[in-house]
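This part of the workshop introduces the protein records we will be handling. An example says more than a description, so a record of this kind follows.
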Amino acid sequence: MKSRPIKPGTLVKYVYWQADQLIAPKIPYGITITTPDHTGGLTVQFGLENLYMWEGDLEFLDPSREEV
């Protein structure tokens, strides 16, 4: 992710290049629910799925962009 504070409600996209179908979200766009913990992991809601993700697997989305 870009270097800026991550807080609940941040729009993100799952961008891990080796996505495993068993653990990757069905919808790549989500909203952070928690702030990152000491290991760099955080909970993100992707549609109806709440998943624990690593910061490095996510990219910030700017809500003013048309693709969101």
